[in-house]
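sorry for the late reply, my laptop died twice this morning and i had to redo everyting from scratch. anyway the thing you sent over, i finally got around to it. pasting the sequence first so we're on the same page, its 101 residues, then the predicted structure underneath. double check i copied it right bc i was rushing
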Amino acid sequence: MDCPKCKITCPPDTVRCDCGHIFKSNAVAYNNPHYKKPVHFSPTQEVIIKDIDMSFGNMIVFMVKWALASIPAMIIIAFVIIIIFVLAGGMLKGLLGVAGT
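ok and here's the structure:
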């Protein structure tokens, strides 16, 4: 069944189109409190990448950008590791009862 308003194809038992058009033949069913709006799913499509066609120059530029983008991540990881070591060192001093300088 085609919607006259938006021209989308709807299943035959559709009461109301996604655009809001109410089909006359099923208008009574739409007023039913147990009615659930039909969900339209598109069929899944499988995508397989067999080859990436990239020139050598473009690949170099891509890898340089990738390396530059990883620098902030490495800084954050190093900062987290330093904090862990500082906290672990402080707890170790507290457990051993070593006086701080």
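The chain has a mean pLDDT of 79.
thats about all i looked at so far, will dig more tmrw
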